[in-house]
Structures are given as structure tokens and as C-alpha cells.
Write a structure and sequence with these properties.
Largest sheet: 8 strands, mixed
Oligomer: single chain
Shape: globular
């Protein structure tokens, strides 16, 4: 029996300079009343610690008290996301010290972390014996400045990926650009998102090998009959031309590669028509009221045909986009399939922690003026019906009027952080959704932009369906505290250790299947990127110490250096559950899955692309490698609905006319994804349509 690994992690707080440090923020609020003086013989001095829970775990604060005043605050334990919480960790302690108050405001976009910071200091103050009630009674109040008026050519509302892309593109056209962001930091969901970008990249496909299961999928497309009722061409006849185009692409590919064999030397395949077909079938959904929802064909074509060009532009501005024969995803040569993508066309680029600061720097270098903690409240329309600016409010209550000579780009994101709004419009999830469902989103994504647009007559579409991310944390709803591989390699099991779904299916199919399980919880088996006979990328060494160990120590996942150890570990709670798998259950499921990979045919669930066989013999016999299981549960992830746009990203009103001076891009829009967004298409969406919106607004 191999020795169990004992890992101790010591995490210390590291203060970082937030990108919003170079953006303009509202002034720090001041307090009107100070605490009453304390008698000298009761004065408290010393250092004291306290702990409270933040978004990502415990936050421990160490306060220095001199003469019963808090004079310094440092954090000795902190696992919060630095790019999201940098402002909170800087501002809140400063306000507490300056005002001797525990009644300070949470920082927008980092609410739970803010509460954790305040709670930790409060706990430390209690340990010191300070009058906590008095500290809480000293309310900090913000004093608004005089109303301000700003003038610009183009206003971008929203500082996420779509907004920053639009701002850069508008500035590249010579426009004067102002960007306002509701949160304390830039980024929105783009900062939290993975690095999965779908693009049709025939050069990258040319150095890959088409698997037998992929070829079988292509053959099934050739066999599709346009009269098949399930294709819904009677409702959406325009999509039949895409199927015709796809069949022609496949036949041309087979002709060009005659004499090659799938799984041996036949290269990979992709085309614009295939990407569009995946968007159509992946997004075609029937609603609870019996009606159907499908993607807008012109928006889908724009996305699929422009995706690689947008990705190359990302590389040009320094986002480390890898495409063509050098494309990489997940650390191995080639392109992969992020969960729910339906085909291997997922590329990689700069991580979320790096990409937003980089985009902001590019924008500012091009002359864009950025204001954070500035919330848009109203779109201004002149007597002719043209959008000529917007009104906003800063965190201190200062009222802002922004006048534009060219127009406004709406890039305020979706509304998954507003589950009540999702539930209000829902015609798909029913009882699986409530107004308290957890979300992967930044807390600022509450649908403000959609509401503002509707107030001036904008039309909306697709609001009936929101996407659930199946592989989310059961405790937080975030896409953290778990580990898995490419969708083709994932093995999902229920509480009895059995597979229950095709892991390569669309995200809503995966979510519905998993939510039907007990408490909606399922489990992902992961052993690294290795395969039977190819153990180089199994879990070991720094991969364990840097990625796995923190999640094991944090009580989020289970790990074992043998299958028996893993089964034993699952008897202890992780993420609040303890299924207690047996070694026999796990072995039977993994060995059956391995046989499907070997035969390139999934007899149980019809998984189209099969990979990721786990070499149990090698793991059990080899010191220093192992296998883990992550508990998961679906949470709100993406809203496919929003304002109606055309391919030029102009916003359309309820009469079908464009609203002059108003463009929109990103998750605030609807029509592209319909009832289900493919994994990896959101980032493609924001960069592709963000570029179009910024360019057109400037021109």
C-alpha cells in the first residue's frame, strides 16, 4: 500500500494593484461623527485576530489596536480571487481605520468577499474587547459631488470582454471613447470565464487525426433527411440550406482525403457549416408553452465565419491566442472540446486573471477613458429618436450625464446574477429553477442594460431560457473547487458510481440529467490527461501539489493514490456530500468506459467523441500518481436572451426598426444561441460582436 500524501498549504495574503487603480473611481466616503473618547485606564493595545467566511473560504484578519483605536489591518489567510477583490481588500480596511467604523459599504462586484473582510475585522475587534456596537453605530456616509457632464464620441456601457473589445475597436477608428463599469473592477463574467474559444480552424484540424467516433458523427449528418420532423425545417426552413452546405463540405473532405482512415491518418475536419449546424441543433429547443426557439441564422453565420479572424485579432493585441498548426488547448497539441461544445474546435488564449488587465491597458493606451463604480441608469434619446448618450450614478451618489456625438454601445452583460429575473421569464427549467438558484456569474450581472434598452423601445428575444452550468460547485455555484478534462475524456457518475449521461452532450441536456439525481449532485472522475499506455500526463508531482492538494485540503474533492484509497476518501464529506463509493463500483464503471474508448463506441449513452481511458493498473502500481473525484451541481451560468440586434449589432425596436445611435454586444443580446449556448461560443460571441459594435459605433 502506498503512503498517503500529506500536504499542508500555507496561503498568505498578497496585495495586488487592481486594474481599476488606473481607472477613475468615486471618492472614499467620509464619516460625520467619531467615537466618544475612552478613559485612559480602559485603553486597549495589542494585536488581535479574527476570522469570517468570504466567497472562497475563510478570511483571517489581524488588527493592531493602539489606545482602543484600530490602527492597522492585515490579512493572514485569504483565498479570495485577487482580481475581483483587490479594491475590497484595499478600500474596506482603510475606511475602517479612517472612520473607526464597522458600518462600511460592501464593494460592488465583491459583495460576499466584502462581508468576509468586515466580518473578520469584527471578530478580531471582539477578541480585542473593543466596543463593537459603537464601531457598528458609526455609519459611514458618502457625500455626492456636484452633478457632472461628460462629452465623448462613443460611450461603452459595461467593462467586460465585449465592452473592452468595443472600446478598443472604436478607439482604433479614431473615436473619443468613454467606458463606464458598474463594478469596482473591470471584467464582468469575462474575468471569471475559462479560456475556451471556438473557431473553425482548418489549419489546426489538418495536424489532428479524425477519430472513428467523429467520422461516425459526420456520416450521421450525411444521412439526415430534410423531411425529418425533428429538424423543424417546417418552422425554420432557412436552416435547410446549412444542412445542404454541410453535406457538401463533408463529401468534399472525404474526396480530398480518399485513401486515409479515421483513427489512423485521416486529418481533422471542421467547416463554417458544421459550426452553424452545431449552433442550430445545440440551440433548437421547445419551450414549456409548446413553442420552439432557434438561433438567428444570420447571427450564427456571422459568428462562425468571423470567429477565426476575431481570434487572430486577439493575438495581435497580445492575448496569446494560439491558432493554426500551433493551436493548443489544455496543455497538449491541437484543439479540444470544452464541455458542451459538440465538436473539437476549442482554442486557448490568455487566462482571465491576465486578460482583463491586458485589455484595459490596450484600451487606455489607445486613449479610452475608463470609470469604474459608475452605473448606467438611463439611455438618453433626442426628439428624433436617436440615442445621444446616457445617465449614470457613481458609487458616492454623484449624478453623471454623458453626451455622445456618435452613439452608445450596450455591453452590460446578462442577468444570471438576478435569479428572480431569470425565474420571471423562464419557460424551460420549471421547478429546477428558483429565485435563489446559485450562479457562476459576477454579482453585477443583473440585467440592468436590458431593462434600460426596453425602456426606450428595444425588442428582446430568447428571455425564456437561461443556461445552467452543470459542472459547478455544489456549495458556491461557481466553476471552482473541482477538476476535469476535455469533454471527450470526462466520466460523470451518480451517487451509486454509475454513468448516467452522454458527457459530450449539450449543457442543458447535461444539467437536466444531473438535476434529476438525488439533490441534483453528480461526480466527475479525473486522473489527468494521460491514457492507457500513455501515462505522461497523469496526476503527479507539481500537478498534484499546485492544483489537486489545495482542493483536497479545502474539502472540495477526494483524491487517492489507488482506487481503494479514493473509495475510502469518498466516505468523508467534500462539498457537503459523502457518497461512500466502493472500489468495486468505481472499477466497474471505469473499466466499462475504457472498453468504449477502445472500441470507439459508447453502447450506453452514445457519446460521440470518446477519449480519456484511465489506466487503473498503472495508477494502482505506481507511486506518486493518483485519481480524484469532484462533486458537482448545476447553477445559473449564461442568459441566451437579451436585446434584438442585427449582424451590424444595431439594436432593433419592437417595430422591427433599428434604434439610431445604439449598438449592443455580448450577453446583453439575444438571438445568437437561442435555447442553449454551446460551450466555448460565449467568448467567441463577445470578441466577434464586440469588434463589430465598436467599429460601427465609431464610424
Amino acid at each position: 500500500m502506498k503512503k498517503k500524501r500529506i500536504i499542508s498549504l500555507f496561503l498568505c495574503c498578497c496585495m495586488i494593484i487592481s486594474i481599476v487603480g488606473c481607472a477613475q473611481q468615486a471618492e472614499t466616503p467620509v464619516i460625520e461623527d467619531k467615537p466618544e473618547p475612552v478613559e485612559e485606564d480602559t485603553l486597549i493595545n495589542g494585536s488581535f485576530e479574527g476570522t469570517s467566511n468570504g466567497m472562497q473560504g475563510p478570511i483571517t484578519a489581524k488588527i493592531t489596536v493602539k489606545d482602543s483605536k484600530i490602527t492597522a489591518i492585515e490579512f493572514t489567510e485569504n483565498n479570495e480571487t485577487q482580481n475581483v477583490t483587490a479594491v475590497a481588500f484595499e478600500r474596506i480596511p482603510n475606511q475602517i481605520i479612517e472612520n473607526q467604523s464597522l458600518s462600511v459599504d460592501a464593494v460592488t462586484g465583491a459583495t460576499l468577499s466584502s462581508f468576509g473582510i468586515i466580518g473578520a475585522v469584527t471578530d478580531a475587534a471582539k477578541s480585542a474587547g473593543l466596543d463593537v456596537d459603537l464601531l457598528k453605530a458609526n455609519e459611514v456616509t458618502a457625500t455626492p459631488k456636484d452633478p457632472q457632464t461628460w462629452d465623448t464620441d462613443v460611450l461603452i456601457m459595461g467593462g467586460g470582454g465585449a465592452g473592452l473589445t468595443a472600446a478598443i475597436s472604436a478607439a482604433e477608428e479614431g473615436a473619443k471613447v468613454i467606458l463606464i463599469e458598474k463594478g469596482s473592477v473591470l471584467g464582468g463574467n469575462t474575468m471569471m470565464a475559462g479560456a475556451a474559444y471556438n473557431a473553425v480552424d482548418t489549419e489546426a484540424q489538418s495536424v489532428m487525426i479524425l477519430t472513428k467516433s467523429q467520422k461516425a458523427t459526420m456520416d450521421s449528418y450525411l444521412a439526415l433527411d430534410p423531411t425529418d420532423d425533428s429538424l423543424k425545417f417546417d418552422v425554420y426552413p432557412e436552416w435547410e440550406e446549412v444542412l445542404t452546405e454541410l453535406k457538401a463540405d463533408i463529401n468534399a473532405f472525404y474526396t480530398a482525403n480518399e485513401g486515409t482512415e479515421a483513427g489512423v491518418d485521416m486529418p481533422g475536419f471542421d467547416s463554417v457549416a458544421l459550426h452553424m449546424w452545431n449552433i442550430y441543433t445545440g440551440g433548437l429547443r421547445q419551450l414549456a408553452n409548446g413553442s420552439w426557439l432557434a438561433p438567428n441564422i444570420e447571427l450564427a453565420r456571422t459568428l462562425a465565419s468571423s470567429s477565426l479572424d476575431s481570434f487572430k485579432w486577439m493575438g495581435e493585441i497580445g492575448l496569446k491566442a494560439s491558432y493554426g498548426a500551433e493551436a493548443e488547448y489544455g496543455g497538449y497539441p491541437g484543439i479540444g472540446t470544452v464541455l458542451g461544445a459538440m465538436w473539437p474546435r476549442t482554442h486557448s488564449f490568455m487566462s482571465g486573471a491576465e486578460r482583463i488587465p491586458h485589455l484595459a491597458k490596450v484600451a487606455q493606451d489607445k486613449g479610452v477613458t475608463i470609470y469604474t463604480e459608475t452605473t448606467g441608469t438611463e439611455i438618453i434619446v433626442d426628439d428624433s429618436g436617436k440615442v445621444v448618450g446616457a445617465k449614470a450614478e457613481q458609487i458616492d451618489g454623484t449624478q453623471i450625464t454623458i453626451n455622445t456625438t456618435k452613439g452608445v454601445v450596450l455591453a452590460t452583460g446578462g442577468y444570471c446574477a438576478n435569479p428572480a429575473m431569470v425565474k420571471q421569464h423562464d419557460q424551460y427549467w420549471g421547478d429546477d429553477l428558483s429565485d435563489r438558484t446559485l450562479s457562476t456569474n459576477m454579482g453585477t450581472n443583473e440585467g440592468d442594460g436590458i431593462v434600460m434598452a426596453q425602456e426606450i423601445g428595444a425588442d428582446v428575444t430568447g428571455m425564456e431560457v437561461a443556461q445552467m452550468m452543470p459542472s459547478s460547485s455544489p456549495v458556491k455555484g461557481t466553476m471552482t473547487d473541482g477538476i476535469w478534462a476535455d469533454a471527450a475524456e470526462q466520466i460523470w457518475i451518480d451517487g451509486n458510481g454509475n454513468r448516467f449521461v452522454n458527457e459530450y452532450a449539450e449543457r442543458d441536456v447535461l444539467a437536466k440529467s444531473s438535476l434529476a439525481l438525488e439533490d441534483g449532485i453528480f461526480y466527475i472522475i479525473y486522473a489527468g490527461r494521460g491514457d492507457v499506455g500513455n501515462p505522461e500526463q497523469l496526476i503527479k508531482g507539481t500537478d498534484y501539489s499546485e492544483r489537486i492538494a489545495p482542493m483536497v485540503e479545502g474539502g472540495h474533492i477526494w483524491y487517492g493514490e489507488t482506487l481503494a484509497e479514493l473509495a475510502e476518501a469518498s466516505k468523508t464529506k467534500a462539498a457537503g456530500v459523502a457518497p461512500g463509493f466502493t472500489e468495486e463500483q468505481l472499477r466497474a464503471t471505469i473499466e466499462k468506459y475504457n472498453s468504449y474508448v477502445a472500441n470507439q463506441k459508447d453502447d450506453e449513452f452514445g457519446k460521440e467523441v470518446l477519449a480519456g481511458a484511465i489506466d487503473l493498473d498503472y495508477i494502482d502500481a505506481t507511486e506518486g500518481v493518483g485519481i480524484c473525484i469532484s462533486p458537482r451541481k448545476s447553477s445559473l451560468h449564461h442568459t441566451m436572451g437579451g436585446v434584438v440586434i442585427n449582424t451590424e449589432t444595431q439594436v432593433i425596436d419592437t417595430n422591427g426598426n433599428t434604434i439610431p445611435g445604439l449598438w449592443a454586444a455580448g450577453e446583453v443580446t439575444g438571438g445568437i444561441h437561442a435555447g442553449n449556448r454551446l460551450g466555448g461560443n460565449a467568448i467567441t460571441d463577445i470578441f466577434t460582436f464586440g469588434r463589430i459594435a465598436g467599429t460601427n459605433a465609431a464610424q
